[in-house]
Amino acid sequence: MKIALTDIELWDSFRNGSRESLGSLMERHYKDLFNYASKFSNDRDKIKDSIQDLFFDLLKNVATISEVQYVKTYLLKSLRRKLYKESLRSGVIFHPEEWEEDLFFNCEFSVENIIIEEENVLEYSKKITYILNQLPKRQKEIIYLRFYQGLDHSQIAAVMIISQQAAYNLLSKALRQMKDLYISLS
């Protein structure tokens, strides 16, 4: 029976020369990376290329790669940075303040993501979906990272390149806005 290695064990193994470990990390996180990148771009081929480039860059720079505490967070943050740099190269210029604010992350939450059997729960889900889609894109991104990707505040801060306090504040603001919208719909 083969014992599954943790992300950290695979990362350390990769840093020590194991290409197979990098392949395992890619297999393990590809879907999450693709789903996250698809919130920034609709170009599936560009997303696939960016993910492949990310792992190629890791392989090329293995000698300079340091230890990480959260591999998934590191990969998400690196992919986000790569997508931003690609947007600059392709002529789609986003100013840094726009990148950090509200223009780049595009996520539409849908009822299809939630399987519901009871009629009243379905109605509740429709309200929640409507409310999520009313949030500014930056708040959608933090909700996505927290509740769909399962990242904690420090990991979210690293991915979004904000302070941990800013992550707390942004998530709190998003949840408060969701609550206010829910109350107004009731």
Overview of this structure, please?
The protein has 186 residues and is mainly α. It has 2 domains: 7-93, Rna Polymerase Sigma Factor, Chain: A (Orthogonal Bundle), CATH 1.10.1740; 111-185, Orthogonal Bundle (Arc Repressor Mutant, subunit A). Helix content is 68%, strand content 0%. It has 9 helices and no strands. The chain has helices at 7-15, 19-37, 44-60, 71-89, 96-100, 119-134, 137-148, 153-160, 164-185. The model is unreliable at 93-103 and 113-117 (pLDDT under 50).
Layout of helices and strands, plus pairs?
Layout: H1 7-15, H2 19-37, H3 44-60, H4 71-89, H5 96-100, H6 119-134, H7 137-148, H8 153-160, H9 164-185
Percent of residues in β-strands:
under 5%
CATH fourth-tier homologous superfamily of the largest domain = RNA polymerase sigma factor, region 2, helix turn helix motif
CATH class of the largest domain, please?
A: Mainly Alpha
> Sheet with the most strands?
none
Number of β-strand runs: 0
Identify the notable features of this structure and list them briefly.
Rna Polymerase Sigma Factor, Chain: A, 2 domains
Task: Give a concise summary.
With 186 residues, the chain is mainly α. Helix content is 68%, strand content 0%.
